[in-house]
């Protein structure tokens, strides 16, 4: 991993931990697999911290540019799965 997670310096310590957790689950969905419920819970928390759609697009866009992993495609794919299933992404999905 030769990139860093995008964070906002105005976030408190717990918010940074929660956002980093979300990005790490996105990363893990591409490199291994993650439980759909864990990813959706992390996304819900991410949206509490980043409620603005434009800020979400900006942060996730930077993350995708740096890592090649799409938050949007991963979350959309996870939304289509049933509770208890796993999310396993491919770079071209």
From TrEMBL:
Gene3D superfamilies in UniProt: BH2638-like
Pfam families recorded: UPF0223 (PF05256)
Transmembrane feature ranges: none
InterPro entries according to UniProt: BH2638-like_sf, UPF0223
Protein family: Belongs to the UPF0223 family.
NCBIfam families, per the entry: PRK04387.1
HAMAP family, alphabetized: UPF0223 (MF_01041)
Record-given protein name: UPF0223 protein FN924_07615
